[in-house]
Amino acid sequence: MSTAASVASATSGTTPTASTGSPEVPPPPPGFKSGLEGHVAFRTEIAEPDKDGGALRYRGVNIEDLVGHVTFGNVWALLVDGRFGPGLPPAESFPIPVHTGDVRVDVQAALAMLAPYWGYRPLLDTAPEEAREQLARASVMALSYVAQSARGIGVPAVPQARIDECTTITERFMTRWRGEPDPAHIQAIDAYWVSAAEHGMNASTFTARVIASTGADVAAALSGAVGAMSGPLHGGAPARVLTMIEGVEKSGDARAYVKGLLDAGERLMGFGHRVYRAEDPRARVLRRTAQELDAPRYEVAEALEKAALAELRERRPDRVLETNVEFWAAIVLDFAEVPPPMFTSMFTCARTAGWSAHVLEQKRTGRLIRPSAIYSGPDTRPATAIEGWNPSWA
Questions:
Q1: Where does residue 288 fall: left (phi above 0), alpha (psi -120 to 50 degrees), or beta otherwise?
Q2: Angle CA(38)–CA(35)–CA(340) in degrees, nearest 5?
Q3: Which active-site residues does the annotation give?
Q4: Fewer CB atoms < 10 Å away: N or C end of the chain?
């Protein structure tokens, strides 16, 4: 295709006539955007990302009133039940059935296996109260499975008696993983989980709702959401922030480091967001958490953030590119000594709350999610016209 044709195609929304003589594909309807961006698919009472005000509310409650004050178990209850409460029961003593060394694979597979283990029926045949209890039971097992997988193959499990001494779900998780965790690390993880528990119709939440809409069991919905979370465009970005932190530590000059990255055409990780037109509120609460916990890399991160924002505003004054959750999540998780390959798994633990709330909300709608697509392939043609056709098949 020539450059002129490429430009015409990009601007008109049509596909140039193919060499086979196929007619042009008609342009998409007005307002069409690929990837469902901007399309409203659901009404939800669960979360409200305020894109212009830079706020995030869980059932009307600003997360700035929750992080550091309310534990993750209580927030799970707020999102799922609409009120504060213990939310999640203690995880059962259930050894992870799959142990490959890859936490994502282990957890996704183990969650799917809960349905036959525990006799979960399709959501279509399950009462709402029973579905809620199944989600709580499966969610806390997801946390347990992450901890068990991360502990390592061949490493003895922490005695259940020690885990039962813990007072919160987050402490139980950290104890199952670490044995004797630092209380400050528990505080850091709890703050991160609360801030990341829910964020509207993102890719993994949409996946969970699509699966729930088919009437599948709740374990299938959570397992599918874990798969969607594993992609670097959704769940893995905070790990890439640490590379920049290390770069500033080596150079000692945050502004020069940022200039060098941008001059080389590299991306600054942790800045800009598809939803917010102001600072990501989750970045704000996690920055506060990192400062309160006296995270060793707080000052380096603060210098990098200031340098990045200054450079971005100077180079792109027409765009709002503020700090997003990935930046300060990396600092908080690094403080808690979570290895970068585990960052996505920690995000998964947090998002079990939002996924569970959306699965129940979708069940209440009772409607199969079935969007349409605009066909842009060849016009009607015989099978004999296709390359590779074997005349002997006729």
A1: alpha
A2: 105
A3: 273, 326
A4: C
